[in-house]
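Q: Got a minute? One more chain.
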Amino acid sequence: MEVLEAIRTRRSVRQLKDTPIPANQLRELLEYAVWVPNHHRTEPWRFIVIQGQAQQELAELRYQAVLESRRERPDREARAQRARDEFRQSGAVIAAVQKLDTQPERRQDDFVAVNLAVYALTLAAWDRGLGSYWSTGAGLAYPPLRQWLRLSDSEALVVLLRLGYPEVIPASRRTPAETFIEWRNSPDSMH
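A: Always. Here it is, folded:
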């Protein structure tokens, strides 16, 4: 697949099959992830590949994390159950972890680098016929989840990325880029 085609056609695929993804294929995808730009080549990432029984344990933790984070919402049980089911219905889950630098500027650069690595991983997965779905937000700081992942105080969980063979590939559309662009000193704007 051409890179431009992958960028345009990649979708966030929520409905994934639970067919396990072979370890050698996951290794290959993660090899692409580490080729993204990162300031001063800090390599601020760590990836935890979760499958099998560990994936079932993670699904239960996600259920509890959603219940906790949506305590005051009437839809909390339904959302928690959906989170559990989605994490069960994946070929693998990859936890993208950021090593936290002591310098705030470097920490921000590293956060961007980890997200770029995850995006490169999603493009590589798409090229190999795999869908992906990012999970972010407050639930990632859930203490039992951090403990289960064995994160140190100098690490942050940035993304839980579900991977799998797509059950359904959703349609998608984007607002044209021109809508978001402001030109300054563009050759076209000088006329």
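A: The two ends are 39 Å apart (CA to CA).
Q: Perfect, thanks.
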